[in-house]
TrEMBL record:
Gene3D superfamilies: GTP cyclohydrolase II. Keywords: GTP-binding, Hydrolase, Nucleotide-binding. Its EC number is 3.5.4.25. GO terms for biological process: riboflavin biosynthetic process. Pfam families: GTP_CH_N, GTP_cyclohydro2. It comes from Gordonia desulfuricans. This is GTP cyclohydrolase II. Residues 238-384 form the GTP cyclohydrolase II domain.
């Protein structure tokens, strides 16, 4: 039974000391005080800072806020009273471990449209604005790490890799420089990439997020949007400065997130084996005097999400005739309405941020990734497919279907008849 005081509580939401007491509509004009953004300007000062703070609305010059999808957790932390809404990041000692750029691509408004090239260096780029009270936060962080993978230890024990004490230690640890990159979209440029009008893009983003960002339709003067999606992480093997030098051999893989395989070793696809093979290739490349790069995008399950992905697994394995390669794409399309939502059009931006003009060895079989990279003006030399012995038994369905659909292979392309024969495990197996 409820107590008298609880049952007599008014049926309204009461303002708590940590809430602002009134809703601040984002559709209202921000007023004065927001610096302009000139996307693609040659210097940070001319381009202007990206200000996505929620504390001083008058300073905001973008739609959305920091941290991609984690912005919702930040809101939860504020709602729960765990985080002060006025908290300012103390950025002491957080500056990048390695200098990236500036590269000439940073001054081309069409080369980079989905990240802020100046996002790692806000402290160096905008000291006066920061000193005068503008809450400008990094959207890119660059650090160093050792990565230790059982596949690399195995490659050492089998003699494919040899520790050199510089790129690969005798402990099996590979030395990397890594960067985390949040999405920052310049809407006119994103619309151009997808061949739609900016108005249609804004309206569709507004409607398909359930009306989450009214400014998309009310504030056409704000051209930059920080979308609530995952970003990218890059891992560099060797000297990051070498990435922009076309004379230095670059081994690179652009990899889309697959939690089931990448982290948990699920054997229905080739994601982790291909990723660890790429890391092995990157280490070998660095040891030859080159540089290696893995760019990892948070686009789980072809950007359809894991729920859709697991539904598709069941549909594949329960269909009449079992899980065959000839039905691989059809089952995804039945559940999701499309075969793929990764749309690689924005993916090359991170390569242009790094100043890359040539990839000597692209460790990917995807024609969509290859087309996006070369279409953005980056030369690609050799393409490196996954060695056959690294393809798990149950993943033959996926890789054969992809090769038949146009993925690069140095071997034979499976025929329609072959695809009918390639069969995966059942659900009870
Ligand atoms: Zn996978």
């Amino acid at each position: 039974m409820s107590t008298a005081s609880e049952s007599s509580a008014p049926d309204t939401v009461r303002s708590t000391p940590r809430s602002p007491g009134h809703i601040r509509l984002t559709s209202h004009s921000a007023g004065f005080g927001a610096p302009q953004i000139s996307w693609g300007a040659a210097t940070a000062a001319e381009r202007g800072p990206v200000i996505a703070t929620t504390t001083d609305r008058a300073h905001r010059n973008v739609i959305g806020t920091h941290s991609g999808s984690y912005s919702v957790y930040r809101a939860l932390a504020v709602a729960a009273g765990a985080l002060s809404r006025d908290h300012r990041a103390d950025l002491t000692n957080t500056s990048p471990t390695d200098v990236i750029g500036p590269h000439r691509q940073w001054a081309d408004p069409n080369a980079i449209v989905s990240l802020d090239p100046w996002g790692a260096t806000v402290a160096e780029s905008f000291p006066e604005l920061l000193a005068s009270g503008y809450d400008i936060r990094p959207t890119i962080a660059v650090t160093k790490a050792h990565v230790i993978l059982p596949e690399i230890a195995e490659a050492i024990s089998r003699g494919r890799l040899t520790p050199d004490g510089e790129f690969l230690l005798s402990t099996g640890a590979a030395l990397v420089t890594k960067a985390a990159v949040e999405p920052v979209w310049w809407l006119p440029g994103v619309a151009a990439r997808f061949g739609c009008s900016e108005t249609d893009l804004r309206r569709t983003l507004f409607e398909e997020t359930g009306g989450m960002y009214p400014e998309l339709v009310t504030r056409s003067d704000l051209e930059v949007f920080l979308p609530p999606i995952g970003g990218q992480t890059i891992y560099i093997f060797g000297d990051p400065q070498d990435l922009s030098n076309p004379a230095v051999e670059l081994t690179a893989r652009v990899h889309d997130e697959c939690n089931g395989s990448d982290v948990f070793g699920s054997d229905i696809c080739t994601c982790r084996p291909y990723l660890t093979h790429a890391i092995e290739e990157c280490i070998q490349g660095a040891q030859r005097g080159g540089v290696g790069l893995v760019a990892y995008s948070r686009k789980e399950g072809r950007a359809l999400g894991e729920v859709t992905k697991f539904l598709v697994y069941n549909a594949r394995k329960r269909q009449v005739g079992g899980d065959t390669a000839d039905q691989y794409f059809a089952r995804t399309e039945c559940v999701a309405g499309v075969q793929d939502m990764r749309f690689q059009e924005l993916m090359p931006d991170v390569l242009h941020w790094l100043g890359i003009t040539r990839i000597h060895r692209l460790v990917s079989m995807s024609n969509m990734k290859y087309d996006a990279i070369t279409g953005s003006g980056i030369e690609v030399g050799e393409r490196v497919d996954i060695p056959d012995e690294l393809v798990p038994e149950d993943a033959r369905v996926e890789i054969d279907a992809k090769m038949a659909a146009g993925y690069f292979t140095s071997g034979a392309v499976p025929t329609t008849d072959d695809l009918r024969q390639v069969k995966g495990r059942g659900l009870s197996g």
